[in-house]
Amino acid sequence: MSTSIALGPSTLGLALATEVATEDGWSLRELQVPDGLDGPPGILQGGLAAGLAIGIARAADTYGAPLTAVHARLHAPTPLGASVVTRVRDGAAVGSHVVEIRTGGTVLVSAEVELAGHDPAPLGLDLLDLATVPFPEPVPQDAYPTCFACGPHPRHPAGLRLHPRPRAPDTIVQPWIPAAALAGDRPGVVDPLLVAAVLDCPTVWAGFERLRHAGYGGALLGGFHLQVFRDLPVEEPVRVVARWDGLDGRKGRARAALIDEERTVYALAAALHVAVPELPTV
Q1: Which backbone phi and psi does 77 adopt, to 5 degrees?
Q2: Cα separation of 129 and 111, whole Å?
Q3: Fewer Cβ atoms within 10 Å of its own Cβ: the N or the C terminal residue of the chain?
Q4: What pLDDT, on a 0 to 100 scale, did the predictor assign at position 280?
Q5: Is residue 281 assigned to a domain?
């Protein structure tokens, strides 16, 4: 009998223990975070770190409804090649779960996950203006060279190499055809963990020049709110679009969406980034 279950596509190597302990109303399991899923070198990519809460909540859920939303705070970098502890308990509403990821006494990620089915997609979304614009040329970046999602030299064999495609002013427009290997436990559907990963990076690149002009070397994801409106099929072309909404002190805010040329919205993310003079490593 297996002693772990995969979080997200099995090709990622994220393994959640089947053995559960309890403590003050929380269910605790160990999670093995493999090497190679970088954002900054040696640190778990921010969208993946936020999206881990989805699989942790689903492992404790008894209803089986699709993901509605996840709202996550990233308190500290999640190290790669390490074992961390996950904690989950029921939230206040039916289908909601409170999740924490910890190492030692440090909270790395806290999140609330709602598994209550898809909401209707928003109307009048300004990101839909990017549904049919021509794709800008890709610009491989060297600030996060090994990033799992956008790095030109990812260390993980499943790295996506989604090079930024900047479009003025402060926008990103990228094509994406998700590979079949990115499905999770539902065949033919991209796992929402990968949706979170793909929507994180463009929110940085949409404002990267603004960050550089302000004297910063980059940014780290501090908060991430993801809403899923419909299943994203594998091997179907979509667009990853993003807009930078502004920098207030060290806090940068941006939004990103997965859409297609028929203006269908699959998912929407709002990101809070914390600007840093230089990127840390673990």
Answers
A1: -60, 140
A2: 31
A3: N
A4: 80
A5: no
CB count within 10 Å of CB 214 equals 13
| Structural domain harbouring 214 | 4-276
Structure tokens belonging to residue 50: 């936020």
C-beta neighbour count of 88 within 10 angstroms: 24
Rounded mean pLDDT for each run of 10 residues along the chain, 282 residues in total: 90 97 97 97 97 97 93 97 97 95 96 97 94 97 96 97 96 98 94 98 97 95 98 98 97 98 97 94 68
Specify if 137 maps to a domain. yes
Residues 6 or more apart in contact with residue 197 via CB below 8 angstroms: 45, 47, 48, 51, 148, 149, 160
Residue 282 covered by a domain: no
Distance separating the N- and C-terminal Cα atoms of the chain: 34
CA distance 127 to 181: 28
CATH of the domain at 67: 2.40.160.210
In a domain, 210, yes or no: yes
Distance CA 89, CA 61 (A): 10
DSSP three-state, residue 63: coil
Closest to 53 (Cα-Cα) out of 116, 117, 114: 114
Across 39-81, where does the E strand assignment appear? 69-74
Domain count, the chain: 1
54, 206 Cβ separation under 8 angstroms: no
